[in-house]
Design a protein that fits this description.
two-stranded antiparallel sheet; elongated; 6 helices; about 150 residues; alpha+beta
Length: about 150
């Protein structure tokens, strides 16, 4: 094999390797337990993702799901905004999560419910915005109903 052929093969391997590396989103199945009724469920967690730029709405482009999925209980709609909750924190949230008002929004997106929880527990407007605003929309909003946004 000549020098030119070796260089072409090397160039192809570098380019092909870059294309394979672009698929850098990893997921894992996590078993979770709803804190209020003990129901176990599985959640497809995103462990990592790679973005190569941003759209006009600042959503990343690449091998990434954005926003990252939030785990939520299938029975009462509780959204795990944080990875770990203290027992006293869950007890303070119990009346809110089991309230008719929250149960009335169970069919909304997890980010909408997360923002609702944060707003009703004294989080600042900035905290809610950072967590949830870009994907807070209700399911009946045209941007979400059409699969966009």
């Amino acid at each position: 094999m000549g020098r030119r052929s070796r260089l072409l093969v090397l160039a192809w391997l570098v380019l092909a390797g870059g294309a394979f590396a672009a698929h850098a989103m990893t997921r894992s199945i996590v078993e979770m337990t709803c804190p209020y009724d003990g129901v176990k469920f599985t959640y497809s967690a995103q462990n990592s993702g790679t973005s190569f730029g941003k759209q006009l709405d600042w959503m990343p482009v690449g091998a990434i799901e954005s926003p990252w999925p939030l785990a939520s209980c299938p029975t009462n709609g509780f959204v795990f905004v944080k990875a770990k909750y203290e027992d006293d924190e869950l007890e303070r949230l119990r009346p809110l999560i089991l309230s008719p008002e929250f149960q009335g929004i169970r069919s909304e997106t997890p980010y909408y419910r997360a923002s609702w929880i944060m707003e009703h527990t004294g989080s600042s407007h900035a905290e809610v915005s950072v967590c949830c605003c870009r994907r807070r929309g209700r399911r009946d909003e045209p941007s979400l109903a059409n699969g966009a946004g």
